[in-house]
């Protein structure tokens, strides 16, 4: 089977390459997961309290990773996350 590069990106759910100026806009940080839970109202999300250190502090983050990991397994782990994503409402209006 011959798969084109675009087809492979779609199959692997990988986004297209970005230019370096776009990459520079990201604020990627390592944070330690202090608490993690599985909200009753979602079968996709995990709610985490993540400590990014004194410069950023502790933030609450929701990640759509529930089908890949158990929330309790994340506690105490370091995660690589972007702290420049905007706040988003999780409730449809």
What does this structure look like?
By secondary structure, the protein is an alpha+beta fold. The protein has a domain at 33-84. 14% of the residues lie in helices and 29% in strands. It is built from 2 helices and 4 strands; from the N terminus they run ααββββ. It has helices spanning 5-12, 20-24, and strands at 28-37, 46-51, 58-63, 78-82. Strands 3-2-1-4 form a 4-stranded antiparallel sheet, with no helix packed on it. A hairpin with an 8-residue loop joins strand 1 (28-37) and strand 2. The chain starts with a helix and ends in an 11-residue tail after the last strand. Residues 1-10 have low confidence and may be disordered.
Brief synopsis:
By secondary structure, the protein is α+β, with helices and mostly antiparallel strands. The protein has two helices and four strands, in the order H-H-E-E-E-E. A hairpin with an 8-residue loop joins strand 1 and strand 2.
Give me the number of helical elements: 2
Which strand order spans the largest sheet, edge to edge or round the barrel? 3-2-1-4
List SSEs in N-to-C order: HHEEEE
Termini separation comes to: 44 Å
Using only C-alpha atoms, the radius of gyration works out to 16 Å
Mean pLDDT: 81
Q: Sketch the major β-sheet.
A: 4 strands, antiparallel
Low-confidence stretches: 1-10
Q: Strand tally, please?
A: 4
- What would you call the shape? globular
**Estimated helix fraction:** 10-25%
| Strand composition percent | 25-35%
Structural class of the secondary elements?
A: alpha+beta
């Amino acid at each position: 089977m011959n798969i084109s590069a675009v087809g492979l990106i779609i199959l692997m759910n990988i986004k297209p390459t970005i230019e370096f100026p776009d990459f520079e806009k990201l604020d990627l940080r390592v944070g330690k997961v202090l608490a993690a839970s599985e909200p009753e109202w979602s079968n996709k999300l995990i709610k985490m309290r993540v400590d990014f250190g004194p410069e950023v502090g502790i933030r609450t983050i929701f990640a759509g990773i529930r089908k890949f990991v158990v929330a309790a397994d994340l506690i105490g782990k370091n995660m690589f996350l972007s702290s420049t994503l905007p706040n988003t409402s999780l409730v449809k209006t």
